[in-house]
Amino acid sequence: MSSKSSSARVLSATQLPKQIYLPRVLGLGLGALCIFAALRDQARPDWVWMLTLIGGFAWPHLAYLHSSRAKESGRAEKSNLMIDAALTSFALYAIGFSIVLSAIGITLTAMNNLSVGGVRLLAKGCIATLAGLMLTAVFLPFEFRPASSLLVQSATMLLVVMYLIAYAWTMWRMANSLQESRDALHVLSQTDALSGLKNRGAFESALGERFADLKAGHENARMALLFIDMDYFKQINDESGHAAGDGVLRAMGWALKSEIREEDVAARYGGDEFAVLLNHADEPAALAFLDRIKTRIQSTSLFENSAIPLTWSTGVSMFVASMPSPAAWVAEADAALYKVKESERGGVILRQNLAIIGTHPIRIENAGTESFSPAESLDPTERREA
Asked: Which residues have CB under 8 Å from 251's CB, separation 6+?
């Protein structure tokens, strides 16, 4: 016998045979012992004993091999459950439908089918049970024996206890698998696939949380918001191809992910624009962070044979308690960024309450000796202090 909950639908087909294997081994194996205990007082032919032995101790392993090697493991496993139901009906018919053992066997079989495939599979299981009864009746005369001995009752109790433990274990494993799948989907939903950084939605959510903490006084008020925009990005795409443009975005994603700390947040805000939230950072710390980004990018060789300079413009806004909302904070950094774009690209403007604090030019012209690997953007190995 086997068990599975409706959450199995989210698991891959290759997981189902493994999840169902242990309950089937225990259910059919212990069930066979119960049948042997009931048959010892009956004069049934040897083939009944042999079929019970095969069904209880060989079939679970054969079922696993069948479903694990099938192209559609889920469908194969449902077919296996139909055979489980037919074997159960054969065994109950052979012992004369002992009330205790029959109630347990029918209940567990129905539970298996219902948990794996819902009402539809339960109905198919009922049909398989009836088919098993009719087929058994052709070869074996019926003897009604509703009573059960103490040995049969003891074996049945062992079956129930062990099977329910296996069922609970399987449900726990399935719940863990389901949670891991949900966690993975949550991470994917917040990640920009190209740069490996958070996406805009995740960044705005984090910004809102940090802003609320700052306003409430729960966080150190020193926090910098940086907007970084790649210069001449359209020209890079037009003259060097979109693969080169993607390389620029990956390189910036790799550099930002390599330099931010656990408490910082970096994201691809949209197109060729990036956003960074530096926690516990003042203006000099923000400029030092940008210097390290420059050094990171300088170590790549994306444009050794290109006349297009790799530059980016940056607007920086420090948190001020008088800011009314996260949107106002974003507007400050965005205004600083576009001030750079209007004057000299490749620079940095620190903007505080619409007052320009200073500039910090950054420009890289075809520098670099090491090739950039896109895989690095997904697994940075260094974390620096901002």
From this structure: 297, 300, 302, 372, 377
